[in-house]
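Exam prep: given the inputs below (a chain plus shikimate-3-phosphate), describe the expected output before reading on.
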Amino acid sequence: MHSVEPRPLIARRNGPLRGRARVPGDKSISIRALILGALTVGETQVAGMLEGEDVLSTAQTLRALGATLQQCGGRRWLLRGVGVGGFATPAAPLDFGNSGTGCRLMLGAVGGCPVTAQFDGDASLRTRPMRRVLDPLERIGARTLASADGRLPLTLAGARDPLPIVFEPPVASAQLKSAVLLAGLNAPGETVVIEREATRDHTEKMLTHFGAQLRVEAAGENGRRITLTGQPELAPAPIVVPADPSSAAFPLVAALLTPGSEVILEGVMLNPLRSGLLTTLEDMGAAIEAVQRRTEGGEEVADLLVRGSALRSVEVPASRAPSMIDEYPVLAVAAAFAEGTTAMRGLKELRVKESDRLAATAALLRANGVEVAIEGDDLLVQGRGRVPGGGLVTTHMDHRIAMAALVMGLASERPVKIDDGSFIATSFPGFVELMGSLGAALSG
Ligand code: S3P
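Solution:
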C-alpha cells in the first residue's frame, strides 16, 4: 500500500498564511468506525472518513476477516459487518502497514474470536511493543503462537471461550484499553478496564452509539472505571467523523509561527481528552479562538481562528501527556520559536511511537540550530524567538516528525528539508496541497 519511493520535501518562509481549510477526518475515530462497523449486524454509513493509509490498511484486514467495506466516494463508506464474534479465519497475514492503532485494536478484536491470524506491518510497526496488548488478551483466553519478543510478525489464536477480565493498564494507552474492550465484546459478563489516567474515549463512545451497554465511572484523581457488558448485538448507527485535532495541529502551529497569519480551521474536534495542545498553546500566549461551536458525530467541534502570535515558554506537566500525546513534536517546534525554556514532562511513551519520537524530535530541533536537552523522560527546548533552520531532518518513517519539521521550515530563517514525506499519507493525505492553499511554500 505504501509507495516504496521516499519523497524528499523542503519548506521555506513565504509570508503570512491566510484562508480557510478543513483537515481530514480523525484517524482514531475512522479506525474505530471500521472495526465496530465490521462487528455490527447490518449496514453502517460513515461520512467524513479519513482515507489515509493507516485507515485503508485496517480496512483491508477487516475484509480479510469477512466484513464488506465499501468506499462510496466523497469520503462516504458503507460497512456490512459480520456480528460480534463473527470473524472468519483469514487466508493470508494481516498487514497493518504503519498503523499501531489499527494493529493493536485488531489484536483485541481478533483475540476475542475463535480464529487464528498472523499480524504484520512495516519496518516501523515491527519495532513497536505488542506485549502490553498480548498480556491481557492471554488472560482473556487468546494464545500467542509465534512472536519474536512480543513484536510483529506474530500469530494470535483468538479465544474459543473468552473470559471477562478486570484489567488495569500499566501505561496510559487508549490503544491498550480499546484492545481489551474489543476482546471483551465477545466474552460473557462484564469486562472492566480501570485507567489510572483517562485516555481518549472514542471506543467507549462508539460502543455506546452502537447499542452496547457500557458504564463509565470516575476512579481516583484522573482515572476512569469502564464496565462493558459482553455479547451485545451491535446495531448499525450512522457515523460522522469530525476533523482530526492531531492533524489540525500542523497548520495551526504554522499559522501561529508566521507573523501576520490568519487562518480558519473548520470543524476541529474539541474532545477534552484530545485538547492538551490547545490548552498548552493558550498558556504560551497563542491567539486561537474557537468559533461556531457545535456537535458533529457526538463530539463538540468548532472552527478555530488562528492568528500569528508571539509565544512564551511554559512548563507542560506530565499529567497532560495523554491528552496531547501525538502533539509533542509540533509543540516542540512552537517552543523553539517562543522566548525561554519550555519543559515537557513525562514523555516516556513517545519512545514507542512510529519512531522514538523523543529522540527524533530532539534531533529535528538540533539539526536546525535549536538548543534542546532530554533529561530522563523530559524534553527541554530553549526558545530564542527565532530558529536558524537550514537542516536536513531524518523522519524515521514517522508522519508527525515529517510534518513538524516542515512546519518549522515555514518560519525558520533558512529552509528545512526532510528526507521522506511519503509517510504523511498515513494520517494526512493532501497535507502539502492544503498547506499550499494557505500560502505555505512546500516543494519536492
Ligand atoms: C491512539 C492512541 C495513542 C495515539 C495514537 C492513536 C488511538 O496511542 O498515540 O496515535 O487511536 O487509540 P497510545 O494508546 O499507544 O498512547
